[in-house]
Amino acid sequence: MLASILACDKNGGIGRNNKLPWPHNISDLKYFREKTNNSVIVMGRNTWDSLPKKPLPKRINIVVSSSPVHQFPGADKVVYPQNLTNAFEQLSDEYQKDVFCIGGAQLYRTLIPICDTVHLTRIHRDYIADTKINLRLIEDNFELHTVELGSYQSFEIWRKT
After folding, report:
1. Once rounded to an integer, what is the mean pLDDT over residues 7-23?
2. Residue 152: how many CA atoms within 13 Å on its side-chain side?
3. Closest to 61 (Cα-Cα) out of 84, 87, 82, 79
């Protein structure tokens, strides 16, 4: 399975100063961990740099970088973007595991169109964000499969139409 997993605020905000724009959200972090444990996670350099602990445990950590000189100690593999969509599709075969794109925005724009599934946590508030995702990318190409509503957020699973 090829999937993307992300959280955003009401306006598609996903980041601010290379961090999440909202306060620590234990339930979203728990959801992320449950979905991505024992899988392959693919992230851009800024997402890698923003991780509080590198590599994320119980996952195969793949970093996408356009800079061959940048070092990623602890990453399982570095992928260069010239054939990114092919590389993303091949990771599932290579590792025999689910593959999740975990960000950032540029990687989401590139990889969401080839995903089977999108796991979207919608934070029901508006935050100051300098990085956003256009939610139409998901809404126009996927069908809402399940929603788990909460007072602060909802957990949505979108499947390819």
Report:
1. 96
2. 8
3. 79
